[in-house]
Amino acid sequence: MSVDLGRSSVDRQRLTLWALAFALLVVLAFVAWSYVGTLVFGLFVYYATRPVMERVAGRVASRTLAAAVALLAFVVPALLLFAYAIAVALTEVAAFVTSEEVGETLAVLEPYLPLSALAGGLDSLVRVVVADPARLQALTTDETFLAVVEATLGSVGFLGSAGLHAFIVLVVSFYLLRDDYRIVAWARSTFLRQGSVAERYFVVVDEDLRSVYFGNIVNAAVTGLLAGVVFNLLNLVAPAVVAVPQPTLVGLLVGVASLVPVVGIKLVWVPVALVLAAVAVLEDPTTLWFVALFAVVSVVVVDWIPDQVLRPFVSGRNVHVGAIMLAYIFGPLLWGWYGIFLGPLVLVLGFEFGRVVAPWLADPRWTEFQVGDATTAPDADTPTVPDADSATDRDATEESRAADDAGPTPDDALGRDPTTED
Fold first, then answer.
1. How far apart, in Å, do the first and last CA atoms of the chain sit?
2. Residue 244 exposure: Cα atoms within 13 Å on the Cβ side
3. Counting beta carbons within 10 angstroms of the beta carbon of residue 282, is it exposed (0 to 12), middle (13 to 18) or buried (19 or more)?
4. Which pLDDT score, from 0 to 100, does residue 61 have?
5. What are phi and psi of 375, to 5 degrees?
6. Is residue 69 a contact partner of residue 56, using CB atoms and an 8 Å limit?
C-alpha cells in the first residue's frame, strides 16, 4: 500500500511539473511570436557572423571579444552600405528635382495647376514670418500645433522602437555567438543521445541554415562587388547617352537581388537594360551596341560565373533550389519583411524532418544509416537496431554521455572545433 502511495505521489509531482513545463512553453512561445521578426533576424545575423567568429576565436583568448569583433565585422559594412545607398538616393532625387526635365514638366502642368500661385503664396508667408515672427503664433492654431507635436512624437517613437529591436538583434546574436557551445553541451547531456536521429536532425538543420544564410550572404557580397567593378569598367567605353547610371549602386543592388534564387540579379540588370535600350532608340540608335554588350556581360560575367563557380560551394546542397526560391517568395507574403528570414528557416526545419526523421518514424532501422545515406532505403535483410532500453545499450549510452560531457569539446555535435572560453 505504501508503495502505491509513493508511486501516486511521484506521479502527481511529475504531472504538476509537466503542467508547469507546458505553461512555461506557452508563455515562451507567446513572447517569441510577439518578437518573431526580431528573433529570426538575430538568428540570421548569428549564422552570417558565425564563420567570422570561428576564425577570430582561434586567435583571441576571450570569446566575448571574439563575438564583439565578429559582429563589428558584419554590422559596420552593412551600415556603411546602407548609408551609401541613402546618400546616393538623396543625390539622385536632388538632381532629378533640379533637372530640366522637371522644369519642362512643371511648365506643361502650369495651365492646369496653380503652381505659380502656390509658390507666390508660400513666398509671401515666409516674408511675413521673417518680418514679424510674432505673426507665426497668429497663423498657428491649437489643432495645428497638436498635430505637429503628435507627428513628432510618432517619429520619435518609431525611431525608439527601431533602435530597441536593433539592440535586441545584437544581444541575441552576440550571446549566441559567445555561448552557443554551452547550449549544444546542455542539449546533448539532457535530450540528445549521441548518434540518435534527433542529434542528426539538428546537425543537418544547423548545416543547412549556415549554408542558406551565410552562403547566400557571401554569394551576394561577391556578386555585388563583381557587378560594381564590371559596370564601372563598362562605363569607360559607354557612349554618354547610354552610360550605366550610378554603376556602383546598381552593382550593390545586383548583389542584394542575388539573394533571390533562380530569378536573382535579373531583377536588376534586365530593367536597366530595357531602360538603356529605350534611351538608345529615342536618342541615338547607333548606341544600341553598348546595350547589347551590357546585357551579354551581365548574363555571362555577373550572372553565370558566380552561379557556376561560387554558389555550389556556399549555398545549401541538401535543400532544393526551387524550394528555397518559394520560401523567399512566400515568406514575405505570409509574414511580412521578416519572412525573408523566417521562410528559409521553416523550409529547412520541415525539409530535414521529412528527410531524416520521417523515414525513421516509418522504420527505426534507418538509425543505422548516416544522414547522407538517407536517400537509399535499407534492405529487407538488414537487422534492426537493438532496443535502446537493454542493459548493454543503456550502459554504452551512459558512458558515451559521460565521455562527451567530460571532454573539452562539447561543440562537436555540430561539427565545429571548440574555441577558448572566457
1. 54
2. 31
3. exposed
4. 83
5. -80, -10
6. yes
Q: Which one, of 371, 348, 407, 347, lies nearest residue 199 by Cα?
A: 371
The amino acid that residue 13 corresponds to is: Q
Q: What is the largest CA-CA distance in the chain?
A: 102
- Evaluate whether 203 touches 184 at the Cβ level (below 8 Å): no
**pTM exceeds 0.90 for this model:** no
Mean pLDDT by 10 residues, the chain (422 residues): 59 87 94 90 89 86 89 79 69 64 57 54 58 58 60 72 86 91 87 83 89 79 88 91 86 81 80 91 90 92 77 64 78 84 90 89 65 42 39 43 41 44 47
Q: Judge contact between 220 and 264, C-beta under 8 A.
A: no
Instruction: List, as one string, the DSSP characters of 161-204.
Output: HHHHHHHHHHHHHHHHHHHHHHHHHHHHHHTPPTT-HHHHHHHH
DSSP string covering 326-388: HHHHHHHHHH-TTHHHHHHHHHHHHHHIIIIIHHHHH-GGGGGS-GGGTTSPPPTTPPPPPPT
Q: For residue 162, which amino acid is it?
A: A
Enter the C-alpha cell of residue 84.
Answer: 551609401
Contact 416, 180 (CB under 8 A): no
Q: Which residue has cell 555535435?
A: 413
What amino acid is encoded at 31 in this protein?
V
The secondary structure of 114-130 as a DSSP string is: -HHHHHHHHHHHHHHHH
> Using CA atoms, how far apart are residues 134 and 155, in angstroms rounded to an integer?
28
Q: CA-to-CA distance for 211 and 225, rounded, in angstroms?
A: 20
Q: How far apart are CA 318 and CA 349, in angstroms?
A: 12
Q: Give the alpha-carbon dihedral of 84, 86, 87, 93, to 10 degrees.
A: 140
Which residue do the cell numbers 549564422 mark? Answer: 47
Distance CA 43, CA 174 (A): 10
> Cβ–Cβ contacts within 10 Å for residue 280, how many?
20
In the DSSP assignment, the letter for residue 134 is T
Domain boundaries, the chain: 1-34, 38-87+123-191, 193-379
